[in-house]
Queue: 4 jobs
Job 1
Amino acid sequence: MMKTQSQWSLRPAASRREFLKAAGVTIALPTFESFGADGASGPPMRMVCISSALGMNPESFFPTTFGADFEPSPVLSPLTDLRSDVTVFSHMDHPAIYTKHGSMNSLLSGVDAKRASAGQNVSVDQVAAAHVGYDTRFPSVHISLGGTQGSSWSASGIKIREEVNPLDLFKKLFVNDSEASKKARQLELDQQGSVLDLVRGQAKRLEKNVNAPDREKLDEYLTAIREAEERIQGIQRWQSIPKPTVEFDDKANAHGNMDYATLSPLMFDLLFLSIQSDTSRVFTAGFGMHNHVIELDGVKDGYHGLSHHGNLPDRLTQLRIIETFYIDQMARLIEKLKSSKTGGGNLLDETMVFFGSGLGDAARHSNRNLPIVLAGGGFKHRGHVDAMTASQVQTPLNNLYTTMLQNFGLEVERFNGATGTVEL
């Protein structure tokens, strides 16, 4: 039986958003001013998940010392002055994943997407996004450079679409539609709503006349319909509300989709502006898998080929340039959040910034010992942590995701088979 949102997510306390359950549908009450934002006291929490499709070379990523004052590795050098704001984990992985590059699809779920039934591989970002819903204009925002990641999955098993061009994302987030476009969009939403009413009615009439396996398929189908209805209602809610005005250089001219030096700062600036304007509270940002030459100084060979470096010095040097660039982009976002003051402190205190990959070592296609960094979120960060357990087993990454979801405001005990939480 597929798990619905109410099964895998929350047992809300009275101070948080309350839920009514009727006929298998989870219905959220409106936000009440007496409970504050999203039914909770204090500022809302945000979640940013950054990923690298081709992992990180372990020899240049993992520090050789542990603790709060760890000596950053070459690739982690951009985080040197931010050590008190981050935790680097060694020996974390998804124990059930042995899918080589296919691990891109499982990074945020810990579940093999090809073997999962619909909804079993819901990703951590989408659990968080469902918690927020359309309290923000967009429940979640997704972008990836150099190819998609495919790691975000809805509760009904639908892969979430990623934007691949920062300027297209800018228009989506911050450029208001014309009145004619709004009217056309409203007509389209009305038509979609009518179709959903029709198919839901047909599905409900079948419900009493099907066997158990077919009833499970029907439940998945109805869950997808409910997701579509929520999306339509959410979009309609924000149709008449102007998008926020932000300062952003939309005239940037990238050489092409491998011009990371231009495109990546734009991508992360848009995430920052979306956080600052409360346009969304859940984000994914990725660097995809490909064998094109990334336009960074010192890089002259294809990315995928460099990940299979064969320990050749020139290839390792180029790979280090790319991987250090990824961490530098993360550090740049962290610094912007930290310097943005809020009533309770700063935006970094209110934003969890995660970096990781489903590949631990692309040269060996290994899905073990994943490169994991977590920053911000109000946690008491611990520098470099060895997550190997006393029984010499790596800590499931979903334990960290469980901790992140709890910090996001969900009362979830275990996310997708986690064995516990992580102390932070």
Job 2
Amino acid sequence: MTGKEFKQKMLSPILWVNLLVMALVTVLLFIGLWIWLGRYTHHGEEIIVPNVEGKLIGDVEYSLEMLNLKAVVIDSTYDHSQPSGAIMVQQPKAGSKVKSGREIYLTINSKASPMVALPDIADNCSLREAQDRLRQLGFRIGPVEQTDGDKDWVYGVKCQGRNVVAGERVPADAVITLIVGSGSEEEEFDYDDETPGEDDGQTQSFEYD
């Protein structure tokens, strides 16, 4: 190709039209991609997370959906003072700023109390030690029952009116009754009224030659 032919091609209107069209298409593609990314990532959009703790899961799911947020239950716990299905913990916390479509992770109150193995306390520890061990496991402790034996020594355990043994699984919210010694056991002794060696009132007579 001669220099003259190259110059003619460079000055050709068709070439410049094609270059202009390509540049325009490239710009439009970048603009479209920018708009799509903004919508996909919800750029500049902020939603304040409401406080849902203490509310029931059914109501929370609806209220979050109205804000274009999604409720996701990830765990459960148990608190006898709260109704079943109540939200105990939420993440993110209330007041956090999130984007539309964000999942709100929830821990709800279980319908039933978890079962916990009873520790080995019967005939194995004192009243105070047994109470401490039970409280650490979350048990509630009712009034003690007393029986004959060493004072404040645990002789048995009751749950829901029946005797239970170490390792048996009982509801964590059940009231535990401890059977402890009253310290009132006394030994009885029989004493003779007569002291050995005392004169029994009989006289002996001796004859002398």
Job 3
Amino acid sequence: MQKPKDMTALQWLAPSMARDGLLKNGDWVLPAAAEAEKMFSDTELHLPAQFLSALNRFALDYIRQAPVLVVAAAHGR
């Protein structure tokens, strides 16, 4: 199954992440993911940034303070 072009990678992964208990359904998830993506010009870091920001309501604050968290999460992909 191919991902529709209008879906972000996070939206594509969201059902399985929610099923595994990693992603909670909240009104903060998509805005946080969008903001986290905008923080990085390297497209290879967009998905890790979105993923980490969606894990917890306060994760975006951590990413703002230490963007290296996203780089570390993307290492060895």
Job 4
Amino acid sequence: MRTFVLSVLILALLAAPALADDTELGDGRWFTLYSSENRVLLRTGIRIHVGDRFLDSDNCLYQVYKIDEVRLQAWARQVEDEGTWAAVGTQGLPGADNKKIAVYHTHSGESYLPSDGVDSTDQSQGGVYKVGAELSKRIEKYDEIEVTHCQETFFPYSGSYRRSRTAAASLVGAGELDAIFDLHRDAAPQEEYYQEIEDMQLTQVMIVVGAQNPIYQTNEEFAWQLKEVADSMYPHLVKGIFYARGDYNQDLHPRALLLEIGAHTNSRQQAEIGSRAFADVIYATLYGSLPEDSDTEKEIKDDPQLQPTADPPPGSRGGVLKGLLTLAGMLVLGGGFYLFISVGSWQGVKETLSRFFRVEFRDVISSIPWHKLHPRYILDQLRAIKIGAGAPPVLKLLQEWWHKLFSPKNRL
């Protein structure tokens, strides 16, 4: 019996990464989670199941009770939180004294469309690596913290959690880590993650806890502690905590969490700012209050590229012009294709267009009263305007001045 139970546990652990792969849509679509009153609670690329839970930014806990798989919609009702979490003191968390943190990226190709030009790639490191680099550099500024930012990629998307598990296990086994984070970006509309905090334009961070992890309650406690500190330092920086079906390799460490920093529709620059702010939260949670000389808000305000008035990233410039040119191109191609179907040959299309410009277009152009567009004609029409006897004296003075200025003898 003992051998049977042990075998089941081993199979469950081996299957957990595969389950994690199945819990995310991964194709740019997203689920919309509603409250029982049909108020939008969350939009996320994580696949939502009945029984999943979501703690929103106001610390209201919801549990999913209804799913519409076709429309990618779900409904949740508010429930009571039954957990009890140790408060984070000014000295940080007990046992977090190794000053070592690791960051990796299971979905290696995830990117930010406005800045990176693509929302995902399967050939090279995506934009999330640059966001991870910003988070790592920010943490390393403080008190000799060592951050290992894993540069491995885990393509293709399918089965990526199984491959990243090996890297995560190596990171955990290489030394006593205080925490390890799998950094992603979500799939959602731009406004879902965009936030302005103290004049900083950034993206929010959503913490994901794998509810099928055998030790998920220890990860859950760490997630709540991070949110508690974030709420006091940068209110609404943390979008919430989502309890997803799957393991997400979080059984490898009691402080292993998945972070969704922004969505594919946000700019990477704003995600980088969000990661810097969350780096402060990580440090303050694990190790206590930030050093007195740290000021993320001041650093961002002093950097003109990160201010709210900064130019949009290159990927978002010229969007209207590109759209108009694309529309014009589609109309031309569509019109040509329609003519081809109508006349049956490209020679017929050529003859039809030639006849149009020789006859119909010429008739339209010739019917335009071009003489009325001449400046002299327009001036004569303006001079011919009569002002009634009861008009204010100033209008009569203006008319006299106009007539003198544009009288025939003054024309060149």
